[in-house]
Design brief:
Elements (H helix, E strand, L loop, with lengths): L2 H17 L4 H10 L1 H20 L5 E9 L7 H6 L7 H11 L2 H11 L19 H6 L23 H15 E5 L5 E8 L2 H59 L4 H38 L5 H5 L2 H4 L2 H21 L7 H88 L9 E5 L12 H26 L6 H8 L3 E6 L6 H5 L1 H4 L3 H17 L7 E6 L6 H13 L4 E5 L7 H4 L9 H6 L4 H4 E4 L2 E4 L8 H6 L1 H13 L2 E5 L8 H6 L4 E7 L5 H13 L4 E9 L1 H6 L10 H10 L1
Parallel strand pairs: 5-12, 6-10, 6-11, 7-9, 7-10, 11-12
Antiparallel strand pairs: 1-3, 1-4, 2-3, 8-9
Length: 745
């Protein structure tokens, strides 16, 4: 895979990740991992909310039920004039708003003398040091707001009776609520107070005061209704006569009998002509398209015209082109056997010329036909357009007369309907004798409540718990976002712009030396299959330019690069002759993992010239190994020396592939030096441990020095944990092998 293809693939992956929405399953798994911390926070907050709820003064609600009755047609005319028709939702909404009116509240305040009640009188309100109840009441969960005097009252000046009355009225209105009961005509008048007995009295006073106010309003309206309707009826009679005269005069002037039939015929004719014009326009567009193609190719010869799709689609053209191709093929075939003047060749060329002439003649006929079709289509479209315009003008003339006629008819009908309505309502009103009937009655009197409605202690505690749960979930997700490590292959490819060649599952309860032999021992099938997947990625990525020298490094120590190097070398050793070199001379692990004798010479001895190659190389599990040897004081100088380059060049000639275990990039600069001799470099990242900025810095340093960074290996992945977190690694290791191992465990 070349660099352009890799860049395109990485860009596509990044765009795909950016366009995807949040992973709900992953979010749920994050929350589930921190469930106990979230529940603890929720419990503490609920306990604090419970203590606050029990310190709030209880509020009682008394309710009186009213039935808002619909008025009959006896006084409908009067009520229509004043906007009080007894039907419809608008009427009920009006009655509900009247129940909330200030006039009704003032009536109750005067009747019950609430200006001297301790709960309303602002002169009897003590000033608490800390008003917790008042603070909570702003959230509608605590005690109702007490009456307070206007802010503009001068300090030291006693409030007047009017000011006190106004303050108490406003406070009382805040305690009153109107609650319609479903879609019925019943409504509850509710009053909330700390004094439950006074709350019941106030609710009953509100209901009775509303009924009395409606009776008074009805009496006032009935006094003027009849006189007003008589005067209005005379005006309507004159307007109706004028409208009828105008309608008859217009009919006589325009000589109108039946305009509907003419309009229907003209409309049908216009519709049919319009449909034909649409078809003609489509046919003209198609003919024009073919005509434009022909005009564009006019100066290029008949061969160019023959290649136009409109010409090429003709069956005869296709047949003549086939004949021409057949004649051309025959000439080409005979030219290989005969000379140019051979009779057979001359006959074949004559046949080819005849086929070309026939094709040319047919092309000219098809082109001429296309031009004629275009001219006919343009003429047909113009004719139909003129016909449509004539029909439109005729219909518009008819429509103007029709609109005027309909307007006059509607005026007559509206005046007649209004006149008839007023006449019938006037007769009904004259015969009515129950003008003093009320439109509401009390269904249930308010009783003294026995239990408070506020604060809703269980609701307060529940809301506090839900809020604490949401905060806990938000904090958990935020902490997860701040965990700046690699947790999946998608993050590696997005943050580093490098492909992931494979992942290695986390091996628990095993020493480092055991893990180094894990592939050759074949005790963990999932691990072995993961190594094979990485081997396949390495081999396939170097199909055009084989990665003969392969350097494996990481960001910091402890990420498993040495384990990856050893197992990958053994996997490659099943197919090729492989040499594994431990170039980490500061912290060598190869000799220890494979039980080399103490003092075994290695790479440092070979470069320094104190040991021979045969003494340094050991054959283990089908591959050759070259340990670090004696730890030198200057590893970087040894790796940068020309002698190391000569040694590596000699080893290239003896082995199919060389795997070099390099020191970490952030510890020393050895990896950068080794990368100059490599054909490929694999970067090992430890899952959920390697910080993203650290890996980005390491890869960036290598790329700045033109290191051949081929891909990334994600090491020590806890597959079971990753599944719970919503990560999927299908294709990076043998799923079935892993499943079998999991079942055995």
């Amino acid at each position: 895979m070349d660099s352009n293809a890799q860049t395109t693939e990485r860009s596509w992956i990044a765009q795909r990740l950016e366009s995807d929405g949040p992973d709900l399953l992953q979010m749920w798994q994050i929350i589930w991992r921190r469930k106990w911390s979230i529940l603890s926070l929720m419990l503490v907050v609920m306990m604090v909310a419970a203590l606050a709820a029990f310190s709030i003064t209880p509020i009682y609600r008394a309710s009186a039920t009213l039935l808002i009755e619909q008025k009959k047609a006896n006084v409908v005319s009067i009520e229509q004039v004043y906007g009080l028709e007894g039907t419809g939702n608008e009427y009920l909404q009006t009655q509900f708003e009247l129940l909330k009116s200030r006039a009704l509240a003032e009536r109750v305040v005067k009747q019950l003398n609430l200006t001297t009640h301790p709960e309303f009188d602002p002169r009897q309100q003590p000033e608490p040091l800390i008003d917790i109840g008042g603070l909570l009441s702003s959230f509608n969960i605590g005690k109702a707001i007490p009456a307070t005097l206007p802010e503009d009252l001068e300090e030291g000046v006693d409030p007047t009776e009017a000011q006190i009355f106004d303050t108490v009225t406003k406070a009382f209105m805040e305690r009153v609520s109107i609650a319609p009961m479903g879609k019925s005509q019943l409504v509850q008048v509710q009053v909330e107070m700390a004094d439950r007995r006074m709350a019941a009295k106030a609710a009953n006073a509100m209901a009775n005061g509303f009924i009395e106010g409606q009776l008074e309003a009805t009496m006032e309206m009935s006094m003027t209704a009849t006189n007003w309707m008589n005067s209005r009826l005379s005006e309507l009679r004159v307007k109706l006569k004028d409208a009828e005269d105008k309608l008859q005069a217009f009919r006589e002037k325009e000589n109108l009998v039946d305009i509907d039939g003419v309009a229907t015929i003209s409309a049908a004719e216009l519709s049919a002509t319009s449909d034909r014009m649409v078809d003609a326009r489509r046919q003209r567009a198609e003919a024009e398209s073919m005509y434009r193609q022909i005009q564009a190719s006019r100066g290029s010869g008949w061969e160019k015209l023959a290649s136009i799709p409109a010409v090429l689609g003709d069956p005869l053209i296709q047949q003549f082109k086939a004949n021409q191709a057949k004649a051309q093929a025959k000439v080409d075939e005979l030219s290989k056997r005969y000379g140019a003047r051979h009779p057979t060749m001359e006959a074949a060329r004559t046949e080819l010329a005849a086929a070309s002439a026939s094709l040319r003649g047919q092309v000219e006929q098809v082109v001429a036909g296309i031009e004629r079709n275009y001219q006919l289509a343009v003429a047909n479209e113009g004719s139909l357009r003129a016909s449509v315009d004539a029909n439109k003008a005729q219909i518009q003339n008819i429509s103007r007369k029709e609109f005027k006629l309909r307007e006059l008819q509607r005026e007559v009908e509206a005046n007649r309907a209004l006149y008839d309505t007023f006449l019938s309502r006037l007769k009904e009103t004259s015969a009515t004798s129950d003008l003093e009937s009320a439109n509401a009655r009390v269904v249930d009197q308010a009783v003294v409540p026995t239990s408070p409605i506020k604060p809703k202690k269980s609701l307060i505690v529940a809301l506090a718990g839900i809020l604490a749960l949401m905060v806990g979930v938000g904090i958990s997700l935020l902490l997860e976002m701040l965990n700046n490590t690699f947790k999946g292959t998608e993050e590696v490819e997005t943050k580093l712009n490098l492909p992931v060649l494979g992942i290695l599952p986390l091996i628990k309860n095993k020493q480092r030396a055991e893990v180094a032999h894990l592939f050759s021992d074949n005790k963990d099938r999932s691990f072995s299959e993961s190594i094979r997947t990485i081997r396949t990625g390495v081999v396939l990525s170097g199909m055009d330019d084989p990665h003969k020298v392969l350097v494996i490094t990481s960001s910091i120590p402890g990420e498993g690069k040495s384990t990856v190097s050893a197992n990958l070398a053994m996997a490659l050793g099943q197919m090729e002759k492989v040499l594994l070199i431990d170039a980490d001379m500061r912290r060598p692990t190869l000799a220890k993992n494979f039980d080399f004798a103490v003092g075994t010479p290695g790479l440092a001895n070979l470069i320094a010239g104190t040991a021979k190659l045969e003494e340094c190389i050991k054959h283990v599990d089908g591959i050759d190994m070259l340990s670090a040897g004696a730890v030198p004081p200057n590893p970087l100088e040894l790796l940068s020396s020309p002698r190391f380059e000569k040694v590596l060049e000699f080893l290239r000639s003896k082995y199919d592939r060389i795997v070099i275990d390099s020191p970490p990039t952030q510890a020393v600069s050895d990896a950068t030096v080794l990368a100059t001799h490599a054909n490929a470099l694999l970067y090992v990242i430890k899952s959920e441990a390697t910080p993203i900025p650290l890996a980005q810095k390491g890869v960036g340093q290598l790329l700045q020095n033109n290191a051949p960074v081929t891909g990334v290996i994600l090491n020590q992945v806890d597959i079971q944990k990753a599944k719970k977190q919503g990560y999927s690694y299908g294709g990076y290791y043998d799923y079935y092998g892993y499943s079998n191992e999991a079942q055995k465990a």
